[in-house]
Each structure stands twice: as C-alpha cells, then as structure tokens.
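Usage

Read records sequentially. Each one opens with the input sequence:
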Amino acid sequence: MGEVPNILFEDNHLLVAVKPSGVLSQEDPSGDPDMLTLLKAYLVEKYKKPGEAYLGLLHRLDRPVRGVMVFAKTSKCASRISEQIRNRTVSKKYRAIVYGSFSEEKGQIRSFLLKDPKTNLVKVFADRKTAPKEAKESFLEYEVLGEGRIAGVPVTLLSIDLHTGRSHQIRSQLSSIGHPIVGDRKYGKGPNRFAGDILLESYHLEVDHPVSHERMVFELPLADEEPWKQFAKE
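and closes with the structure output:
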C-alpha cells in the first residue's frame, strides 16, 4: 500500500481526506497513485476486510491540485451526498495565487465553457451569443486575500467560491481575465517561469452529514512554505 493521505475525519459513513498535489482522484491508465485506491487499501488494512472495501467517489480534483475531498463509506451515504452536490448545498472554496494585481477587493466571472475532449482543454466564451450551444454557463466569485511577489513579479492570493463545478473552471476562467494561476501548465501564460506545482488548492469544504445532518466544516490552513507563507497574517 502507498502512503496513506492525511485523513481529517472518519466515521461509519464518511471519510474526509487531503489529496496531495500530483495524486489522481481516481485510477487512470497511467497506473499512478490515486486517492480512491489508496484509501480503499487503507480501509482494508485498518478493518481487516476480506476483499475490497466500498468507497464512493463523490467529486474530483485535478491531478496537480491539492485539497479536501469527501468520500462515502456506504452506497446510501454516497447517494445522499451526491444529492447535496446536485442541489449545491455542498460548499467548496479554493485558494489560488495568480499573476497580477486587482483594482477591486471582490469580483465575479460568469462565462460559458466548452471542453475539447481531444486536447483536454477548455475554451471560454464571454456570453451565450458567442458560445456554441454545448457550452455550459459557469460562475465563480473571488475575493482578494493578499498581494505579494514571486521572483519579483506581482501576484495576488485569491479565495474563490465556486458556484458551478465545471472541469478546469477556475483555471480557464481566471486565465480568461488575464490572471492565470501561477504554475498552471495548461492555461498559464505568466510573466515568468515558475517551476513548482500549480498554486491552487481546495482549502474549505462544508457538507451536511448524511445521517446526523450536522453541518460539517473542514478547512486547510495556509501552507507554511513559500510562496504561500508570504501571505500569512502577522
């Protein structure tokens, strides 16, 4: 079994863990480590289960993105949380370090996205008139948390509230307004070459417990490493 991801919460119904950057959400043809396989192996070992453990994948994070993920340990819980996701009562917030500065403290992006399966890239259209009919309306809000520099280049730390969960939505929409995420190899055309991972993480997740209905909140602290730590409040 590979290294077990950091587990934030576990009971008979749910498992909440932190996906490291570079780890897949679920298995793909590459055979590289993925969260679902690692956590199933952890459950088999911990509870001495014969055969394979059940674990429901409820949402995904792009491979280079670090962040909080919730999994269901029963099919009933999987269906209840999936319903919450459809009804948009699951709240997810992201942190990103992007190139450039913002004149306003808060803003929003509403555009239409269409993913090309051949290139695995998303095209952004400003409005319905210019977008193909297959394009999906996508909406996010952002708030400026701080300003800093990477290799002398101005950057901004954003908190992003994702209202629609489209593939590559944050990455493509921020790039479309001239603020690509630092380290983004797909959509980033920043003013310098940043050699590290994409500076995007899912840091906040709220979900109603599928049995007790208690509102549960999970949040990752700001990483104590550069370039994140330059934004730490004194």
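Summary fields computed downstream for this record:
- The radius of gyration is 18 Å.
- The helical segments are 35-47, 75-86, 169-176.
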